[in-house]
Design goal:
128 residues, mainly alpha, 5 helices, elongated
């Protein structure tokens, strides 16, 4: 998860600095946003960032289930924080696209990244 978080952060920073987020009319659904993103100039990196986010959500869920099997309460708590943080970052990303690039949602993604990275790093220290 730490490696995926680092890669996701690097892609997110590229998107934040260089991608143009399409301004959409109110009422666009998820598919409308995806089509608008696919036809933008920065589509490959942005789509990779989105797909990696879905992979990380699945990975965070797997880490949480494995921590439940492991049974150490501190690792369970930290993996739960990591899971919630990854989901919050994804939610922030979705609203970032819906809003046409509102920086408040970018800030939410950054805070969720720091939280997830800290939680997974700490969980790694507890299991080591």
């Amino acid at each position: 998860m730490l490696a995926l978080l680092f890669l996701q952060f690097a892609l997110g920073m590229w998107v934040n600095l260089y991608a143009s987020i399409p301004q959409l009319a109110p009422g666009y659904g998820m598919m409308g946003i995806m089509f608008a993103v696919m036809y933008s100039a920065s589509a490959p990196v942005l789509m990779l960032h989105i797909m990696l986010g879905w992979l990380m959500a699945a990975g965070a869920l797997v880490v949480f289930v494995l921590s439940l099997i492991h049974g150490k309460s501190s690792v369970i708590d930290l993996s739960a924080v990591g899971l919630v943080s990854v989901l919050l970052a994804g939610l922030g990303g979705m609203y970032f696209l819906f809003s046409g690039g509102n920086n408040a949602y970018s800030y939410l993604m950054a805070l969720a990244f720091v939280s997830a990275f800290s939680a997974y790093f700490s969980a790694l220290a507890y299991t080591g």
